[in-house]
């Protein structure tokens, strides 16, 4: 059995918050470069160039890529043979988020309740924590801060089996058009298919946080990722919605078995910042 | 891409009329930061018949909620936020005499109608390019509602702040014009 200290989790989470918010990942930079090369709209090309410039400034100056440093979405893979010592793991995550957002000059964007008071909690907590218990004795922490320009454009639909693949594509297209310039394209789009209402939303979120250079291990779904990308880029939305062929740089699909009577679909859109950082303890 | 037009803010309606959908502009001067919570308070203050904390005549409103500035910096990352969230309040702000807005994303028909009626322009900055845009912001001074934190009303001193005219005062919409040639479905 491996022992992981509470304090270590706090420190690692604080570091991950900074890294995710200030560094554009290599997969996204590569995707931008490819998009800049392929883009036919001169304005679109110019905008993608500016995104690369923005990434450079953020990294050099250790400054947030985007002012909306998001709500901290955390994915935990907890090895069933690992033991956390010194306190409750969710407290450690939240303490790490508070520390990271405060010490690294990130914007605190969380309010205490959604309707009545809406008072800023002042430290960007609570985080959204998704935990899986997995084999082994390691703890994997992945942070994907989510801004709400893109999050607000998510769609979840409970289709029926007769809607089939065409139905999925229709919902996808609806989401891309609904997002338009508001979600800061070129985007990474996460698609969840299957499971239940709650499961499909999580699948879409996992997909949205996946790298731009990854693909689904199932070749049928990998092909679907390609098809959906082409579909997104035929809308004309383009970089910042000002026209072009680079509406998305990547579509990631995650799926799960579902009920005989259902076909849940969720689309979670990630902006061009598509932040993610992880560590294995 | 069109020629870059250099403009000084605040500016009056005579300048608004020269800005056309699709124009690239570089803004220098001062602009006013205000977003969701500030718009809500401003319109509530007006409805109560109370005095506003500043005169909005000819001002350019920037929808922004920056990250905190690091020591030695004027401001943190400061890209535009989604303008549509301000749509409910914008016709009132336009009636108050603002000349324009800077944000990102689509606007409602009510906003476009008010822009045409009172001669105002809607410009967009690159969403998410907060680090890049911060380089053109030289000073950040909170004018009102400091308790709102990143949502406080502030005066920004800018030099060559880059933006694109999305909707001009005649209602021409560059989102439509720009997307049309690439739309296949």
CATH H-level superfamily of chain B: Fe-S hydro-lyase, tartrate dehydratase beta-type, catalytic domain
**Tally of DSSP helical segments of chain A:** 8
CATH architecture identity of the largest domain in chain A: 2-Layer Sandwich
CATH architecture tag of chain B:
Alpha-Beta Barrel
Q: Could you walk me through the main structural features you see in this protein, from its secondary elements to its overall organization?
A:
Chain B: Residues 13-176 form the Fe-S hydro-lyase tartrate dehydratase beta-type catalytic domain. With 281 residues, chain A is α/β, with parallel strands linked by helices. Chain A has two domains: 2-19 and 65-145, no CATH class; 149-274, 2-Layer Sandwich (60s Ribosomal Protein L30, Chain: A). Helix content of chain A is 40%, strand content 23%. Chain A is built from eight helices and ten strands. In chain A, the strands form three sheets. Chain A has a four-stranded mixed β-sheet with strand order 4-2-5-10, covered by helices on one side. Chain A has a four-stranded mixed β-sheet with strand order 6-9-7-8. Chain A starts with a strand and ends with a strand. The mean pLDDT of chain A is 97. Chain B is globular. Chain B has helices at residues 13-16, 36-47, 90-95, 109-118, 130-134, 174-179; strands at residues 4-9, 24-33, 60-62, 100-103, 121-124, 137-144, 153-167. Chain B has a single domain (4-171), classed as Alpha-Beta Barrel (fumarase). Helices cover 23% and strands 27% of the residues of chain B. Chain B is an alpha/beta fold. In chain B, helix 3 links the parallel strand 3 (60-62) and strand 4. Chain B is built from six helices and seven strands; from the N terminus they run βαβαβαβαβαββα. The longest helix of chain B has 12 residues, at 36-47. At the A-B interface, helix 3 of A face helix 5, strand 7 and helix 6 of B.
């Amino acid at each position: 059995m491996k022992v992981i200290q509470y304090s270590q989790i706090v420190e690692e989470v604080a570091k991950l918050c900074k890294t995710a918010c200030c560094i554009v990942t290599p997969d996204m930079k590569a995707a931008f470069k490819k998009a800049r090369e392929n883009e036919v709209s001169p304005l679109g090309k110019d905008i993608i160039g500016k995104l690369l410039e923005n990434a450079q400034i953020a990294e050099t100056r250790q400054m947030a890529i985007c002012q909306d440093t998001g709500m901290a979405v955390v994915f935990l893979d907890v090895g069933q043979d690992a033991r956390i010592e010194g306190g409750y793991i969710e407290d450690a995550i939240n303490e790490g988020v508070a520390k990271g957002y405060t010490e690294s000059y990130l914007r605190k964007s969380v309010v205490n309740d959604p309707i009545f008071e809406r008072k800023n909690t002042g430290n960007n907590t609570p985080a959204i924590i998704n935990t899986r218990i997995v084999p082994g004795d390691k703890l994997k922490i992945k942070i994907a801060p989510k801004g709400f320009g893109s999050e607000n454009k998510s769609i979840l639909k409970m289709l029926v089996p007769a809607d089939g693949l065409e139905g999925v594509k229709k919902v996808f297209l609806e989401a891309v058009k609904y997002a338009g310039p508001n979600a800061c394209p070129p985007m990474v789009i996460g698609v969840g298919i299957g499971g239940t209402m709650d499961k499909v939303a999580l699948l879409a979120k996992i997909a949205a946080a996946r790298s731009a250079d990854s693909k689904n291990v199932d070749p049928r779904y990998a092909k679907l990722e390609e098809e959906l990308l082409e579909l997104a880029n035929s809308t004309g939305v383009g970089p910042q919605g000002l026209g072009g062929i680079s509406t998305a740089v990547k579509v990631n699909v995650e799926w799960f078995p579902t009920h005989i009577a259902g076909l849940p679909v969720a689309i979670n859109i990630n902006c061009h910042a598509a932040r993610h950082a992880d560590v294995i303890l | 891409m069109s020629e870059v037009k250099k403009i000084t803010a605040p500016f009056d309606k005579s300048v608004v009329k020269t800005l056309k959908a699709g124009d690239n502009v570089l803004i220098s001067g001062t602009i006013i930061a205000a977003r969701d919570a500030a718009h809500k308070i401003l319109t509530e203050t007006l409805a109560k018949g109370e005095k506003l904390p500043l005169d909005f005549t000819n001002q350019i409103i920037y929808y922004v909620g920056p990250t905190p500035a690091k020591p030695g910096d004027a401001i943190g990352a400061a890209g535009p936020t989604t303008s549509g969230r301000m749509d409910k309040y914008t016709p009132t702000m336009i009636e108050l005499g603002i000349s324009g807005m800077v944000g990102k994303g689509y606007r409602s028909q009510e906003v476009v109608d008010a822009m045409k009626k009172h001669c105002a322009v809607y410009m967009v900055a690159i969403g998410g390019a907060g680090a890049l845009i911060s380089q053109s912001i030289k000073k950040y001074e909170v004018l009102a509602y400091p308790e709102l934190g990143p949502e406080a009303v502030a005066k920004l001193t800018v030099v060559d702040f880059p933006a694109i005219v999305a909707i001009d005062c005649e209602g021409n919409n560059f989102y439509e014009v720009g997307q049309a040639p690439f739309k296949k479905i």
